[in-house]
Amino acid sequence: MAQAAQQQQAVQKNTLYVGGLAEEVNESILHAAFIPFGDIKDVKTPLDQATQKHRSFGFVTFLEREDAAAAMDNMDGAELYGRVLTVNYALPERIKGGEQGWAAQPIWADADTWFERQQQEEEMQRIQAENKAAMQAAEELHRKKMAQEREGEKEDDDPMARAEAEALQQQQQNTSS
């Protein structure tokens, strides 16, 4: 709830976001479509860097808040060049970066904590590697112990081996007598 209230306060009441623009619409056409509602301070249609065409949305900034409100009420859902427009109050421009992802701070603002996080991550990887090596050593030791026990069992409990040993002893006793 507090975040929604915070976003409401952050909304720029005289700048409108205009979405759903047709490819043919440029800044002067957008200006002409919104000028009936009041004096316009600025019109922007951000360009896609690859195609150098607008990204199907733009921003219209009015001098007066009341004019922006009237334009939004009248133009939201209206058609322009065969496309239905979406018109809302614009959120403030944000800079990409920071620990929170999209934040109103430069990307280098969290540089100090980044190094700290890198060191913690390296330490965790080192501990995990040590734990893995210790687990492998313990498993190997366990395997050897189990193999030795199995060898001992074969010598003690194998009836064939016992019978052979007894027969060998008797032969030795018979030959020596």
From TrEMBL:
Molecular function (Gene Ontology), one example: RNA binding
Keyword RNA-binding tagged: yes
SUPFAM superfamilies attached to this UniProt entry: RNA-binding domain, RBD
Pfam annotation, one family: RRM_1
This protein's record includes keyword RNA-binding: yes
Domain spans labelled RRM: 14-92
Start and end residues of each stretch annotated as Disordered: 126-177
Superkingdom of the organism of origin: Eukaryota
InterPro entries xrefs: Nucleotide-bd_a/b_plait_sf, PPIE_RRM, RBD_domain_sf, RRM_dom
UniProt biased composition (Basic and acidic residues): 139-165
Keywords for the protein's UniProt record, in alphabetical order: RNA-binding
PROSITE patterns registered for this protein in UniProt: RRM
Protein name: RRM domain-containing protein
The species this protein was found in: Turnera subulata
